[in-house]
Design a protein that fits this description.
Layout (H helix, E strand, L loop, with lengths): L3 E3 L5 E5 L2 H15 L8 E2 L6 E5 L5 H9 L1
Antiparallel strand pairs: 1-2, 2-4, 3-4
Length: 69
Amino acid sequence: MPVRVDWDRQPVSIHSEDKFELEQLIVFLKNKHSIRKRSIVMADKEAGGFLFFVYQPCDPRWIVEFYQR
């Protein structure tokens, strides 16, 4: 299931209907790209589903890489 990334927001938010998918993405970003400054996965009260925030630079290609593996 694809995620939606809001790059215009500060901090960047990553959204999905699947909480487990976001948790797996967090593990991938942490292990492969050392992304450690992020929030926990939480309910998206505005759009439904789930989201988390990234508080450090994150290359969009890293998220694509997660889905291509």
